[in-house]
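Attaching the record inline, Q. Sequence:
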Amino acid sequence: MLTVIESIVGHPFFAAPPLHGTVEVEAHGAPPLAVTLSATDPDGDRVAAVSENGAIYVVTTEAVGDEVYRKFAWAGSTRPVATDPVELLLNNTWRPTLSITGADGLPALVDAGNVQLPFNTLKLSFRLPPSLDADAAAAAVTDALTADTPPLSRVTFDVESTMAGWDAPPVAAWLEASMNKASEAFFGKPSMYMGTGGTIPFMGMLGERFPEAQFLITGLLGPKSNAHGPNEFLHIESTLRLTACVARVLADHAAR
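Structure, as predicted:
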């Protein structure tokens, strides 16, 4: 992945996959549920990623610094869960997360009272480490939610979808040299890599179909660019530079 934003560093691209499901609790009182997922860094807090083959990529944070979190407009006294850039990159890539994206069975505030509820239904979304088997994760979550249920309750978990992530193969020497040369030529800085906590299922399909292939995955994000929104726009000068970088890499590949 050729990175053209100065504040991003990292390692070969990976995408963390999601797991979506709905948990329903039928109970006298329906006590809340808590699910905890955890991941361990095998070599200290400076380890950014561990691929399936055991290779460890150590992230240099000098180029990122506190811009990892300062770039966001924090409201009031809100703050990030950590200020160490490595921890934040880990949280956004290789560590699993759980989000509750919807709920049924809870009354509106105006109707709420000190009464037992017949059921609660929560929609859960899990982000998984990119090398984790999504179906195995779904089975583990199902077991965790249904194996030891709260008293006087029945818990069911329906898996809506599972998608596996993707961890890029090591970057070939020719591609790394080409990306660096192109980035230096058009941006005045070496190329860098970064994973992302979002799924691109197509990349996993391509990686499985072409296991020996090299990948250059790039796009324009960062200051003065806004993707996937109602006011989507791109920084024209950076777009031209990025296009030139990709063209240079393609030319180097053709000349091999």
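The CA atoms of residues 146 and 217 lie 40 Å apart. The chain is about 25% helix and 20% strand.

More tomorrow.
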